[in-house]
Amino acid sequence: MIGVGPDGPLGPVEEERGAGAPWRRWEPARAHAATRAGEHSGGRPAWAAGSLADERFAWVVLATVEGVGDRTLAALCTTHGSARRALRLAARNRLPARVHDERGGTRALPAGVRAGIARAAADPGARLRELGDGGIWTLTLLDPDYPARLLGIPDPPAVLFGTGAARALRTRAAVAVVGTRRPTPAARVAAARCAAELCHAGVAVISGLAVGIDGAAHAAALEAGGTTVAVIGSGHRRPGPRAHRGLVQRIVATGGAVVGELPPAAHATHGTYPRRNRIISGLADAVIVIEAPLRSGALITAGLALEHGRPLWVQAGQPHQPASAGCRVLLEETEARPYEGVEKVLAALPLANRSRDAATARPATTGFEAGLALGGEERRLATIIRRGPVTSDDLAMLTGIAPGELAGLLTLLELRGLVRVLGPLLLPAGPLLVGSAPSVTQP
Amino acid sequence: MLATLLTAVIDGLEGALVRVEVDVASGLPICHIVGLPDASLSEARERVRSAIRNSGFEYPARRITVNLAPAGRRKHGAAYDVAIAVGILVASGQIRTSGEPCALLGELSLGGAIQPVAGVLPMVATLARSGVRRVGVPTANLVEASLVAGIEVMPLAGLDDAARAIAGPRGRRAAAAARAPTVAVSGSPGVQAQQSMTLVEPGSCVDLSEVRGQSTARWALEVALVGGHSLLLVGPPGAGKTLLASAIPGLLPPLSDSEALEVAVVRSVAGLLDPSARCWRERPFRAPHHTSSYAALVGGGPRLAPGEVSLAHHGVLFLDELAEFDRDVLEALRQPLEEGSVVVGRAQGSVRFPAHVQLVAAMNPCRCGYLGDPDRPCRCPPGDPERYVRRISGPVLDRLDLRVEMPRVRPAALLLDPRPESSAGVAARVAEARLVGAERNGGRSNAWLSGPEVQRLCGLDGRARGRLTEIAEVRGLSARGVHRLLRVARSVADLAGRAVVDEPAILAAADLRDPAVEAEPGLAA
Description:
Number of helices of chain A: 19
CATH architecture of the largest domain in chain A: 3-Layer(aba) Sandwich
Number of domains of chain A: 3
Largest interface: A-B, 53 and 52 residues
Shape of chain A: elongated
Strand order of the largest sheet of chain A: 3-4-8-7-6-5-9-10-11
Low-confidence stretches of chain B: 177-202, 520-525
Oligomer: heterodimer
Mean pLDDT of chain A: 81
Radius of gyration of chain B: 27 Å
Shape of chain B: elongated
Mean pLDDT of chain B: 84
Largest sheet of chain B: 5 strands, parallel
Number of strands of chain B: 18
Distance between the termini of chain A: 23 Å
CATH class of the largest domain in chain A: Alpha Beta
């Protein structure tokens, strides 16, 4: 929430933007003002008198060109004064081959990018129609409803492409839940529990749509009826892994959003995921790392969160377990705080009292059996399953129930949505995920 | 001089009558075998010459022509050796024949001893059907040959025995003295219900008390054995999948008379019938390796031999490391699993082998084996576990009734678990439940009931019906899936000794996963 006034991003925010990014030399607001004043019109008032909407349009069109990222867009705007002018030149095939770079010199635009800009400029309307047909909306730094939290990071994406509900990016509070793509089942449950409890407290869950922890967090948030935002590192035509296509549809259908900075047709490459991680951290008020081995992408997100000044919460995991070695490094070597449940995370969030009350009044505090009418043995089983992943053999040993009878009881719990099956493991689900510990301290 | 003897050839699982005609005429000393013999049969020449010489007879230095009629049928193997040798002896006037039609089966060693051959049981049955009254078989094949009623069986140890057997009553008496008593059973082929043959020797099979932990998998195995349901065991390496499956032979009830005969025929053709017939009623348990070829598993090859799926007829076919099997080989199992028999086609015609098997398969959950381990993360690249499971095609998975997940056994369970129940108790329970089911189902196991039948035989009450509907809706079951669930529930109820399928049975059966239903996408690795 750094540097955002009531006027939105076009207000007095320039001074607080991070240093060292292209934006230092090129401020969208300033560029916009310059365009309005005709400073850079070069004696061509016919298009210099364009509106802010025209400039925004030009940004979006340029951003749909493969190879035009924030850096190129900034270079084009500083070189030609505005995106509209660059687009206009490209339409007449007169876009110069060189642009100013951030160091005050010039650099050549790659031929492919130039050709791409020329193609986009030839029929800019088609680009917007394509986006519209794909159900994709855009948010640019020129828009007053650009997510305020994201403006607080040094290099917010100039154009965000999204599907679903854009308002999911502007919830009162949002927390990122991230971790490894190969979690232990216990960490999967921890991520799901964390996401479910955040949602019950009215906090949006941000994650990266990857398999593993990310997927568990998104799925649990959906199940808890909360808002979740998936930040993808590819274009919207191929959002995330194939296994999560259904998850994407559910996120979009339930008022969540899927956002990314790459044009719809873009493929994910080596560098896109680490770049995407800054958006995850940027969209969130705090970041929780559930499980990360050494060299996990989640550690990049964690590092960015510290850079962005976001509170970082890290679950310690089992000692000596390589699956959470990265987490231990974070806890030992950075100012990350140990994650032991959402209560402390929520307490540190800028939540209004109303939602904090909502958090404390979660149904979970009254016990998971509420309204479920569980039988005695079912309750016994549910209590054990709730603590973490167990196998039915574990349950048989702990309770002494015969396997034939146990199988029936487990089916009942599954039908009630309390248990989810992952291979031999029974994972807590639904109401069993919430309210594991005493809830948030009363204000 | 011309001599005619009878013998038989195996075609699929059926025998066919073959006449051996031997002509010894003047001419250059040479022996011709005609009548579509294969290489192993052409070599009979050499065996017969040495065997005749070494048995104290004289190999005639004349022109010998052996014809195997019908001439149009291909013949293979060494079962004709004895008939050819005796034919030569008769045709050269060295021994006399009583003139009665007599069949001889057996392979000769160079010393004149008679070796056992494969397929004696169906061959003797065919000979009996064709009206042959007497047959000489190798001593080692005596027991299986004696299973056929209506034909006199003589054991042959050497060529001189064979000579005596066809010479006349005196020789026959001598032969009879060496033979085990047989009991004639009406019908042909008949089966002797001899008590001595009902022995089932568990042999080297694993006892269930060696399987620690895995209470769910043990129960699932019981249910599967009660109903004859095909079972897929999924678990990491070392979970005990193979151990559990190896205990199956000790849990299966003995074969009935008619089943035992069908099994014996297949075993006989494959040359696998135990000479003492001790395992006569033992249910087959076959565990072919995952590198097995198509022909080895399904049947076929140049001689149209039965494959593993037929050798497991009325028993269990255990496929360890299911995902490692060749895709085509697994696809070929679809027909036998559906129909209970397999048809191997050739240009010359097709052969139907019985293949009424219960399939038990085991596989790892993923390539690294740790998907779903409580403590260790799976090391497979994202998406790889799904690919690994997809190596088994949907139609094959669809033919597996139950999927049981076997977790890695925790050290505590390994050390603290009191000694688990042994095979004997489980086997008794399974046998009793199977008996109840067979009586109700008209001899069939629950897995082979049709959809309408199982609905009728379950006797669902309102509560059970409601629960079934709920499960079908939540899981999105197809009609086939509902019937499968009902069949399993029927077995669960049988095992629990309940006459109707009630709500607990439906719920318990639903916990045994349907392998065809995909896992939730949100839980992808």
